[in-house]
Structures are given as C-alpha cells and as structure tokens.
Amino acid sequence: MDAAAEALRARRARPGPRQPPPVRAVRADDGADLARMIAEQFGKGPVHEVKAVVYRRPPHDMLGSDGYSLVSNYFLRRVLPYCLMHNIISKLQAAVLSNMIGRQKKGKIEVTHAEIAAEIGVKRTSIGHALDALCEKNLIRKVKRSSYQLNPRVAYNGNGQEQHDFLAELRALALESKFPDELAPELSLFPRSEVG
Fold first, then answer.
1. CA 44 to CA 160: how far, in whole Å?
2. Residue 173 phi/psi, 5° resolution?
3. 99-130: b or e for each residue (b if 16 or more CB lie within 10 Å)?
4. Phi first, then psi: what are they for 144, rounded to 5°?
5. How far apart are CA 185 and CA 150, in angstroms?
6. Among candidates 106, 99, 101, which has minimal Cα distance to 160?
C-alpha cells in the first residue's frame, strides 16, 4: 500500500472533525501520476491533461431535515402570486402543489390523498379535485394511483444533469398535454421571452 493510502486510512480512523489536508506544492511528476490514475479508473485511453477546480462551500442551512428543491424563481415571483391573486389557482391547489414540491424525489412523488390531507389539514376527499386541477394545468402529471411527476421546469430536487435527463425522458413520451414544456394557457400570462 502506498503512503498516500496509508495516510488516508489513518485519517479516517481518527475520531473527531476532519481537517482538510494542507495544500502541498505540485511537483512536475504529479500530473502524470494523476493522469495515469484517471485513465486506469475510466479505461478510455491515455489522459494527457487533468484540470481540477476545488470549491469548499458550507452546506445549505435549510428549515427542517427534508433537504431542499430548486424552484423556478419566475414561477415563484410571477406565475404563482398572479394566479393566487386572480383565483386561477385556489389556496387548496397551491397548498397541495407546495406539499408535492416538498416531498418530491428527483421529480417523482409517491403519496396518497390521505397523506397530503393529513399534512395540510383538510378532508381527504378535497385532495383529488386539487390534484386533477394541477394536472390540467401541467404542474404535475399523474402516472398511476398515488404516483405523480412534478413538472421539473417548475421545481426539481436533484442536480442539473438529472433534471436534464428527466426532461428528456418526459419529452420522449410526446404527451398530448405537452407536459413538461407547456403550462396551461391561464398560467402563461407573460411574454414568451420571460418564460424561456
């Protein structure tokens, strides 16, 4: 076992918070070793150059322990407030949509009407109508009983590549509703240039 692997093993065995290793100067031969290790790992032929950018950022400090989703600022700033103020989306529909955004895993949601009703404090029977309305507006899509997909252009929890792949998967379905690319006409009140 080489010295670097020994040092890593020893560091992992120590209790307490880990401090990042000190930055050491790169020697002329380090690049070749790193390129060789990457080539061996990926097995795609020789690697001639390796560039790395390291960022050390603190994690997001979010309310609760459920993590977070990326939500379109355009949707939060323009679409949702307008729709609420002009009764295009009811308070119940907004509450159900918010609940769905908060429970999604990479755009997919497995939930019963009773679970949503219990969390937002309404009768279970009212949830079905709200979900149907959100589906008609292309904000969510029902896949099967208790299984939905959130429009990933409105909100998504996952990285950009995962969102891109999910969008490609949805677009390949070529749905008549044009989900996920078009929202209902009453939600598209602003010039196309603002929507993107």
1. 25
2. -70, -20
3. bbbbbbebbebebebeebbeebeeeeebbeeb
4. -160, -175
5. 18
6. 106
Q: Could you identify the residue written with the tokens 């598209």?
A: 188
> 135-161: per-residue pLDDT in tens?
999 999 999 999 999 999 999 998 888
SS percent in the chain: helix, strand, coil, step 5: 45, 10, 45
Tracing tokens 């209902």 back to the chain, one arrives at 184
166 and 106 in contact (C-beta within 8 Å)?
yes
**To the nearest whole number, what is the mean pLDDT of the chain?**
82
Rounded Cα distance, 76 and 67, in Å: 19
Read off the DSSP letter of residue 21.
P
**Cβ atoms within 10 Å, residue 30:** 12
Question: 5-19, 34-48, 155-169, 181-195 — which is least confidently predicted?
Answer: 5-19
**Whether the Cβ atoms of residue 88 and residue 82 lie closer than 8 Å to each other:** yes
Q: Which residue blocks in 14-124 are alpha helix, DSSP H? A: 30-42, 73-74, 80-85, 91-103, 113-120
pLDDT tens column, 31-51: 566 666 666 666 666 666 667
Give CA–CA dist 127/116, Å, rounded: 7
Token pair of 68 as six digits: 């977070």
Supply φ then ψ for residue 157, to 5 degrees: -120, 110
